[in-house]
Design a protein that fits this description.
8-stranded parallel sheet; about 25% helix; alpha/beta; about 575 residues; 23 strands
């Protein structure tokens, strides 16, 4: 696709500030920052017009007011405004992560990073060292735990309790769908009888009724997270701000939070009131399967809450789980005889809940990993009444596995496909990884079909699902384009699904903006919001292997610098 893709959706983009779509355009709230960038190569995401190539932009009050040559922008810039020399760097619209969890991730990445720990012995050593470091009574938390070490003995707290004693221990697996808690942690959380939620989320017990410590799926993980003693508001604000500043340092100017709630909005409101919100945010409130109509009414009632840089009006639903634990919904059983269970015990209830959000004018994102889940959600969306004018189409999140029929159905649906190709990082070249083995040889080649989605005519957006995977969009772009570890010499997984550099950038900029109904974002045009990313090279022409090391020189949100490299 060319940079002129979706021009119909951008009609009039160069003629002034885009009209407020009702979903929180920059012009709707107060006044943003002002600056100019000159000496850049522009990746505009719109067709070039006029004589000569533009090399500079002017942002005033958080909105791009001029695009032109260096001389034109220097002359147009008001006296006293900062003029930043890009020195030949590439300026793009601000990068956007279409699926992230910065709020809960700031909490769930507390403790020690267990990524790369591959044996029970190594796990015990890591936990023993942390146990010795902590004060008596403190919770020991860890994250990024991998499944493979438990393949023989199963997920059980007996793997480590000998070295942690009566200390509460709460570990989270890398995919955010499984946890492991010590007996002391379960007791501290008040768990005396097994917890089982309607979506299948549970505290797992063995054949004798003993708690294994395994926490299956997100509802019970959320329960345990809330049981851990929390720091005060100031500490939590500092933690969230630090995460968002790391996002900015990687070139991100915003993200969609996919598990929001009242606390999320409170945190964003407080950060923004203090001038400390460094990202543009859309909050999807997480509707859990066991929620009541009263819970749904509360979410709908809050849909218009927003600030200058954050907005609500969106919701997240689940249709299934994940491949690795056998909770993804598949057309056919996986190799371990699982994969036919939806997250909703009664699918008509999902349809009813979906319909109420749709009728309220909210944007719905539904988690669907397995091919049958993708198919069923597509059918559910297709049966909804037509959207009111100006409201964007709903999205499906992850779409890890899709049959040819699923891809074709998606292509004609108008639905946004929100994918994370960098989740392939846990696959092994010989397909011995748990994900591939669960799917089997006939299906492991149907994963992360990004190029097939575009070929079918669907809109694609990309993201990280952080803290499940690296939030750095350069890493995400590298996986989307190369489909292998960019730091290693490997054959690509399904090479026909590799994206071009141009389409990958569009999937991190223009396409997520249009998917949310924002005609004033994702492109460098007069009237667009002043969200830009400056690279020390071109992310479109850089090789996938070079992308993770491509310098991010400047990140600007709403006309304000939120990240600047030394010397810029």
């Amino acid at each position: 696709m060319s940079e002129a893709t979706d021009q119909g959706a951008l009609a009039g983009a160069g003629a002034g500030v885009a009209a407020d779509t009702g979903t929180g355009s920059a012009a709707a709230f107060g006044s943003g920052g002002s600056l100019a960038v000159v000496g850049a190569r522009l990746r505009r995401n719109v067709a070039e017009s006029g004589e000569g190539a533009a090399t500079a932009i002017l942002i005033e009050g958080g909105v791009i007011t001029a695009v032109g040559t260096d001389d034109e922008i220097r002359q147009a810039a008001p006296a006293g405004i900062e003029i930043i020399d890009a020195r030949g760097g590439t300026l793009t619209p601000g990068l956007w992560d279409s699926h992230a969890h910065p709020d809960s991730g700031a909490v769930s990445t507390r403790g020690i990073d267990l990524g790369g720990v591959s044996t029970i012995a190594e796990l015990r050593d890591r936990l023993a060292a942390e146990h010795a470091r902590l004060a008596p009574g403190e919770w020991l938390e860890g994250w990024n735990l991998e499944y493979e070490m438990f393949e023989v003995g199963g997920i059980d707290r007996s793997a480590f309790e000998e070295v942690t004693g009566d200390r509460p221990v709460f570990l989270r697996f890398y995919d955010g769908h499984t946890g492991l808690a010590s007996g002391a942690a379960l007791a501290a959380a008040g768990v005396e009888e097994p917890i089982r939620y309607p979506d299948g989320s549970e505290t797992v017990v063995d054949e004798t009724g003993r708690f294994t410590g395994e926490l299956c799926e997100m509802s019970v993980l959320s329960f345990m997270t809330e049981a851990v003693p929390m720091a005060d508001l100031e500490a939590e604000l500092d933690r969230l701000e630090a995460v968002l500043l790391r996002f900015a340092a990687a070139g991100l100017t915003g993200c969609a939070i996919m598990d929001g709630g009242p606390r999320t909005r409170e945190m964003l409101r407080e950060l923004e009131s203090r001038g400390r919100l460094p990202q543009r945010i859309v909050v999807h409130e997480w509707h859990r399967v066991h929620f009541t109509d009263a819970d749904q009414d509360r979410i709908i009632a809050a849909k218009d809450e927003r600030g200058r840089l954050w907005e609500g009006g969106a919701v997240k639903l689940f249709s299934d789980g994940v491949i690795d634990t056998g909770t993804a919904l598949l057309h056919e059983l996986d190799t371990q005889g699982e994969g036919l269970r939806a997250a909703w015990p009664e699918w008509p209830e999902y349809l009813r809940v979906l319909g109420r959000y749709h009728d309220a004018g909210m944007l719905v994102a539904t988690h669907a990993v397995g091919d049958r889940a993708v198919n069923d959600v597509l059918d559910a969306y297709a049966d909804l009444p037509a959207r009111a004018a100006g409201l964007p189409a709903h999205s499906i999140e992850h779409l890890e596995v899709m049959s040819d029929a699923d891809v074709a159905k998606l292509g004609g649906s108008g639905i946004t496909a929100s994918m994370q190709p960098l989740h392939m990082q846990w696959r092994r070249e010989d397909n011995s990884d748990n994900w591939s083995q669960r799917l089997g040889e006939d299906r492991w080649g149907t994963g992360y079909r990004a190029q097939s989605v575009l070929d079918a005519g669907a809109r694609l957006t990309l993201g990280s699902d952080w803290p499940v995977a690296d939030y750095d969009p350069r890493v995400g772009m590298a996986w989307a384009r190369g489909r292998h570890d960019p730091s290693a010499e490997q054959a690509p997984f399904e090479p026909g699904e590799r994206l071009t550099g141009e389409d990958t950038l569009l999937a991190y900029t223009l396409w997520p903006a249009l998917a949310r109904g924002h005609s004033d974002r994702g492109h460098l045009s007069v009237g667009a919001v002043g969200d830009v990313t400056l690279f020390g090279g071109d992310p479109v022409t850089a090789t996938p292997e070079a992308l993770p090391g491509l310098p991010v020189l400047l990140t600007v949100v709403d006309g304000r610098v939120v990240h600047r490299s030394e010397g810029v």
